[in-house]
Amino acid sequence: MQAEGASQLRAEGLRVCYGGPDVLSGLTAVIPAGQITAVVGPNASGKTTLLRALARLLRPNEGAVYLNGADIARQPTRAVAVQLGLLPQSPRAPDGLSVEQLVRRGRYPHQRLFSPWSARDSEAVNEALELTGLGDVRQRGVDELSGGQRQRAWIAMALAQDTPLLLLDEPTTYLDIAHQVEMLDLLERLHRDQGRTIVMVLHDLNHACRYASHLLALANGEIRAAGPPSQVVTAALIEQVFEVRVSVIACPVSGAPLCIPHSHASRQRSPAG
Fold first, then answer.
1. Per residue in 154-163, pLDDT tens?
2. In total, how many domains does the chain have?
């Protein structure tokens, strides 16, 4: 799966509302093919709504999303599903479903009427389970897992779908710091080795800077900045978007921008203090 063959995804003039004020207000964004894009912003800034619109889970009130140059709303469901995989926020599995059964659901878009299961399907499921460290619990019920294991099971299902474009809404939720780094390292490898285009909503701005090559910074349903972390992440932008003062330095490990929040006490202290 090479970068030059990666899916192209873009949004043009998206306006989305749920019966009240706009959640997205005329938003236009291009997802760079073959890159990792992180969507960042404060709570209620429209990050999840944008991801749901990109994945065709909701229809915008105005504007459109284009996948490979065509309106995604007009494309057959199966055609979209073999190009674009999604890990939604806080997904729920039916009671009694095993880990393996959940991951196998990622292969449904690849099934055909007269060949419901193939060797490639089995290979994709096994590979996804091993990549997420769930091979030993594949027969356990999803509802028996810890929160972190459950999150990895859903990620495994998205990986088994084997799409060139992968959208993940807060993929590190419920994971401790070790598993957060492990999961983000895995996504980075998928991007590097297989050329997958990855879009993920992240709350941790430093993780976003470390792992993404492209950032979309949202506030109040609008994109306030877009581009490489080194160009986007400044103290002024973070204060504007997140309403918190930070110092931005180069990470001593990766060289990516590293945000260090100022404490409330230091913000309230006079210059002479």
1. 999 999 999 9
2. 2
Residues 42 and 113 in one domain: no
Helix 177-194 vs helix 147-160: crossing angle, to nearest 10 = 10
Query: What contacts 262, CB < 8 A, 6 or more positions away?
Result: 244, 245, 246, 247
Amino acid at 216: L
2 SS3 class: coil
- Closest C-alpha to 199, from 68, 66, 36: 36
Of the candidates 260, 207, 220, the one whose C-alpha atom is nearest the C-alpha of residue 238 is 260
pTM beyond cutoff 0.85: yes
Which distant-in-sequence residues (6+ apart) come within 8 Å of 135 by Cβ?
A: 126, 129
Q: Is the pLDDT of residue 268 over 60?
A: no
Please say if the pLDDT value at position 28 is more than 50: yes
Q: Is 204 within a domain?
A: yes
Same domain, 15 and 116: no
Claim to verify: residue 49 and residue 113 sit in the same structural domain: no
Using the predicted structure, report yes or no on whether residue 4 has a pLDDT greater than 70: no
| Boundaries of domain holding 98 | 93-159
Alpha helix stretches (DSSP H) within the chain: 47-54, 77-81, 99-104, 119-131, 147-160, 177-194, 205-211, 229-232, 235-242, 264-268
Residues 105 and 225 in one domain: no
Same domain, 101 and 152: yes
In a domain, 70, yes or no: yes
